[in-house]
Amino acid sequence: MQSKREALGCGPPMRAGSSLVCLLLGCARAVDPRAEPDDERPVDVTPAAPPMAADALASLQTTAVGRGELYWRVRGPDGPRCEAWSFEPAIDDPSRGRLVRAEGPLRFSFAYRIADGLLRLSAPLREREVATAAGRLRKTTGLALPCIFTGASLTPADPAAPRRLVLEGNERWFLDAGACDAAGLEPAVGELRPVGCAPALADPGTRALAEATATTSPAATRLRAGERVFWLRRRGDRSVCEAWSHEPGEPPGHGLLRRRGRDEHGRRSVVYGYAVAGDALTLLGPNEFRRARDRRGVVEVVRASGCLITRPLALAGDVLRFGADRWYLRRGACERDRVAGLAAQPDPDCAQN
Q1: Structural contact between residues 175 and 190, judged by C-beta atoms closer than 8 angstroms
Q2: Which residue among 78, 150, 206, 287 is least packed, with the fewest CB closer than 10 Å?
């Protein structure tokens, strides 16, 4: 059993002027004021996938000890690409340490731990090398990103029963560069699926996010002042203008976007957290909240995603432009574009990067 915070792996918020609301998804009250107060019950954590085979686990451990590399098959707008990440094991214990990738002056890393036949990634961090007055380079901590698990949380109606947290690994990693390059859509031999929060560094826009800014853009001001935004989406065989309620947070530049509705499984609430830094906005999510019933009463079900997506945010009349997407400040503006046949955008998700 673990404490709720340990289980969720919720790391520090984004620092240096771009702090992001850390959605503690085990505390539904943090994002749903109608939920019951958190009872701090223990959490039973299980992975969705079985542990690695013995030979794969041995190869992973050998690679970590030798400070070798793993290869991440990252999705991008031009198709997948394979990135090399290097192990930097702890001196006294190679089963833990940092997994690192350098890109010019930037250094990206996760804390890693190899245990129970799984590779766990947490604490996503970006550092930058800067020149001192003496011309030397030093590393500075520029951005510590929030770590939200990807998976599902189930809170039974029985107050004596623990929460169940199922961790999913959706990111594809390989021990061999060739296997990474050759991988298709189906799971490949030697493929690893780490649990934790690798999606936090899956988006190029989030990796490139400005480290500090004190400015408030006109677009962010309009977003904070509004109660709703409308997204043009394709649902089934038709386009619709969906209303998302806006809940501004503190400090200014933070908040939640929420859509309540119903599907074939019943009522649900979909939530994104966001943070604005200068002329860019970062979304965290999507995260889905449901309620179901068993013989003891109401069961709280949460599907969580640690995906972070950063795009430029700009104001154009009654429209907030979030990258290629259009967030309408008035329903009428959305309906005009819908009738005119403007192409609907997909919901923000790291899987589309």
Answers
A1: yes
A2: 78
16 φ/ψ sector (left φ>0, alpha ψ -120 to 50, else beta): left
**For the chain, what are the domain ranges?**
4-207, 218-352
pLDDT reported for residue 59: 94
Rounded distance between C-alpha atoms, residue 63 and residue 59, angstroms: 6
Residue 262's pLDDT is what?
80
Asked whether 33 and 39 are in contact (CB, 8 A), the reply is: no
Nearest Cα residue to 105 out of 139, 128, 85, 84: 128
Task: Determine the Cα–Cα distance for residues 85 and 60; give it in Å rounded to an integer.
Answer: 13
The sign of the dihedral angle between the CA atoms of 323, 325, 328, 334 is positive
Q: Which is nearest to 170 in space by CA: 147, 195, 202?
A: 195
SS3 for 123? strand
Query: Which residues, including other chains, have CB under 8 Å from residue 1's CB and lie 6 or more apart?
Result: 42, 43, 44, 162
What is the spatial distance between Cα 69 and Cα 82, in angstroms, rounded to a whole number? 12
Strand 228-235 and strand 325-328: the pairing is antiparallel
Tokens of 28: 């539904």
- Other Cβ atoms closer than 10 A to 46: 9
What is the distance between the alpha carbons of residues 199 and 223, in angstroms, rounded to a whole number? 26
SS3 percent helix, strand, coil of the chain, rounded to 5, is 15, 45, 40
DSSP alpha helix (H) spans, 11-81: 54-65
CB atoms within 10 A of CB 268: 16
| Pairwise CA distance, residues 336 & 170, whole Å | 38
What distance lies between CA 133 and its chain's CA centroid? 37
312 burial level (CB within 10 Å; 0-12, 13-18, 19+): middle
Its pTM stands at 0.83
Intervals of the chain under pLDDT 50 = 1-38
